[in-house]
Each structure stands twice: as C-alpha cells, then as structure tokens.
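Human: For the file, kindly provide a plain-text protein record giving the amino acid sequence and the backbone structure tokens, at your earliest convenience.
Assistant:
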Amino acid sequence: MIDQVSSLEEIMAHIWGTLARGGADAKHAYHFPVFATVIANEVKQRTLVLRDSNIQKRQLVSFTDIRTQKVRDIRANTNVNWLFYDHKSKEQIRASSIATLHHMDEQSETYWRNIPPKNRGDYLGPHAPGSQLDHYAGNLPQDFLEKPTEKNTERGRENFCVIICEVNTIDFLKLMKDGHLRTLFTWKDNSWKKNWLAP
C-alpha cells in the first residue's frame, strides 16, 4: 500500500505492478484506460483495453483495427497519452509515450494467435470503424454471430493491429485525506529520474 512513507522506488514498483494487473485482469480498474492522440492540434480521447505491460521495456500494449481513426492519428503523430484511474485506491496514473504500430508482422502475429476466436469480432467488421451508415449495423459477419471459429475469424488478421507504446514520463497521484501524494518519473539517459511533486 502506498502512503506518505513510501519511497519513490516503492511507488515506481507499485505503478508497474498495478499496470501489469490491469493488463491481465479484465475486472481491474486499469484494464480500461483513456487513450489520447493528437492530430492537427486536436486532442482525441477514447477508452480502450490495456492488453499488456512490460516494465523492462517500459511498454504499454493495446489492440485496434488498422482502419480506425486512432491509427491515422498515430501515423501523423506518435506522441500519445494514457490515463488510468482506480476509484477504490484513489490512484491516478498519467503516462506519456511514443506509439508504434505493428500490422501483419511478427509481433502482431504473436498476439493474434493468442486471441480466442470468440474475441476476434472487433476485427471482422465489414465496415471500417467510424464509417457513416444509413441504418444500424452491429458490424459483425453472420457466420461469426452463429459460431466463431479459427477458420471464419482468420480474415480479421488483416485488420488486426497492435499498438506498442514506450513510456517516457509517468505522473502518479494518490488522493488521501491527510494530504495527497504526487510523483513524476521521467526516462532520461537510460534511467528513470524520480521526483516528488506538489499535489
């Protein structure tokens, strides 16, 4: 548990530990962060799923359809931000990072093979996400709705994209009745620079 006597090293370990749990546990508060991109000086935010994290590589990972607006945003500007908040612990993490897109390559193939057929629907839509339609459409093919299989979901592979973000700053805030706690971690010269901030 993080409190006023926690060291900066303990807080850093706590941050990455909770991010790891967020990537692994669909019930964890950090499993559904807000993800922000910038294009033409406009910030665009959306909720996505944290799929993986790696403290050694400073990485946060998510999946998307290659046809989405966020992919176009990242191609124009690789600077992205993540926002995590856990109402129970009253902890917030803001992470600035540089995003890379992995599509039809070895890394995306590894993740794709670990997705069960029943979870591949997000990449099977006949319409690109965000397309304007004349009427409601669930954007899922009928054979997937009837029974998803390895065979009838494999075509989603061409739309599947992995977003891997290398984190360069982490702003951590913990709300407490007797004084909030805030820290800043900045990656510089191949190490984390750790600082306390006024909350």
User: Anything to note?
Assistant: The radius of gyration is 19 Å.
